[in-house]
Amino acid sequence: MSNSRVTGRAAEQFVVDVLKKQGKTILAQNYQQMFGEIDIIASNKTHVLFVEVKLRSKPLFAMEELITPAKQQKIIKTAHHYLSTNQFFDKICQFDVALVELIDDNFKLTYIPNAFMQSDIRGY
Questions:
Q1: pTM
Q2: How far is CA 101 from CA 15, 33, 61, 67, 108, in A?
Q3: How far from 23 is each of 26, 58, 84, CA to CA, in Å?
Q4: In Å, what is the CA distance from 62 to each residue of 13, 15, 54, 68?
Q5: Among candidate residues 98, 113, 108, the one with its CA nearest the CA of residue 38
Q6: For 7-42, b where at least 16 C-beta lie within 10 A, e where not — what string?
Q7: Given this model, what pLDDT does residue 41 score?
Q8: How far is CA 104 from CA 51, 55, 59, 101, in A?
Q9: If DSSP codes are grouped into helix, strand and coil, which group holds residue 25?
Q10: For all residues of the chain together, what is the average pLDDT?
Q11: What is the pLDDT of residues 45-66, one digit of tens each?
Q12: Looking at the DSSP assignment, which residues form a beta bridge with residue 33?
């Protein structure tokens, strides 16, 4: 496994650990279907969170640079599959982005709840 891949996995685990400390339950990691992948799926009493983790060396990015509309559409399709397969019809669906920076061998997290919504994507 490449060094960048190892660092990416460590960044995802860092986000998982933060979410757990906040009392969220981790339902899945690296959930894959033919239309896409979701890095982390978590829940609390009222929400199912679909979290896209982005590891970056530079802190400032425009949202369009982080997750393109095409990537958002893939995440939404994958989330629909997960929700229907696991019957989470009673929870609110939320799409979040976890921006992780590696600074002096430490991770810094900027968490963006509701980073995009299903209605942001045409055709849904």
A1: 0.88
A2: 11, 27, 12, 16, 5
A3: 10, 29, 24
A4: 24, 21, 13, 10
A5: 98
A6: ebeebbebbbeebeeeebebbebebeeeebebbbbb
A7: 98
A8: 25, 14, 14, 10
A9: strand
A10: 86
A11: 999 999 999 987 665 665 556 7
A12: 36
Domain residue limits, the chain: 3-120
Query: Could you write out the three-class secondary structure of 36-78?
Result: EEEEEEEECCCEEEEEEEEEECCCCCCHHHHCCHHHHHHHHHH
For residue range 15-25, what is the model confidence (pLDDT) as tens digits? 999 999 999 99
- Go through the chain and tell me how many residues it has: 124
Q: What is the pLDDT of residues 77-115, one digit of tens each?
A: 999 999 989 887 788 999 999 999 888 888 999 899 999
Q: Please, are residues 105 and 59 in contact by the beta-carbon 8 Å criterion?
A: no
State how far the Cα of 2 lies from the Cα of 13, in Å rounded to an integer.
17
Secondary structure (3-state) at 10:
helix
CA–CA separation, 26 and 6 (whole Å): 20
In sign, the C-alpha dihedral spanning 118, 77, 28, 12 is negative
Task: Please say whether the structural domain 3-120 has been given the CATH code 3.30.43.10.
Answer: no
